């Protein structure tokens, strides 16, 4: 699994974050998704062999919230 982070703009309420989180959770290869309003951030645990960062970014953008993947240095979380 890989942890990916995306800056998400345009979300204004908990309904927005819920919509994004539900859509991400339905993607094949995503095991966990967490979306926050402030800051506008989506953090996704995903299997890189089943879903790409571009697919995740596209899913968020198609909901009406511009998204941009953060660089690997900012998005990877080390396991203990």
Write up this protein:
The chain has a single domain, classed as Alpha-Beta Plaits, CATH 3.30.70. It is built from 3 helices and 4 strands. The chain has helices at residues 14-25, 53-62, 72-75, and strands at 2-8, 30-36, 41-46, 67-69. Strands 2-3-1-4 form a 4-stranded antiparallel β-sheet. It is globular. The model is unreliable at 73-80 (pLDDT under 50).
Summarize this structure as a short list of keywords or feature phrases:
4-stranded antiparallel beta sheet, single chain, alpha+beta, Alpha-Beta Plaits, 3 helices, 80 residues, globular
Rg is 11 Å
Q: Per CATH, which architecture?
A: 2-Layer Sandwich
Distance between the termini: 14 Å
Biggest sheet overview? 4 strands, antiparallel
What would the average pLDDT be, to the nearest integer? 90
Give the spatial strand order of the biggest sheet: 2-3-1-4
- What is the number of beta strands? 4
Quickly give the structural class: alpha+beta
Individual helix count: 3
Query: What's the order of the H and E elements?
Result: EHEEHEH
CATH topology (fold) name: Alpha-Beta Plaits
- Unreliable residue runs: 73-80
Strand-residue fraction?
Answer: 25-35%
CATH class: Alpha Beta
Residue share in helix = 25-40%
What is the overall silhouette?
Answer: globular
What is the domain total for the residues? 1
């Amino acid at each position: 699994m890989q942890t990916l982070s995306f800056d998400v703009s345009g979300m204004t309420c908990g309904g927005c974050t819920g919509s994004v989180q539900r859509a991400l959770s339905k993607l094949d290869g995503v095991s966990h998704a967490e979306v926050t309003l402030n800051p506008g951030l989506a953090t996704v645990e995903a299997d890189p062999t089943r879903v790409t960062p571009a697919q995740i970014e596209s899913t968020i953008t198609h909901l009406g919230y511009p998204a941009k993947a953060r660089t690997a240095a900012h998005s990877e979380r080390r396991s203990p």
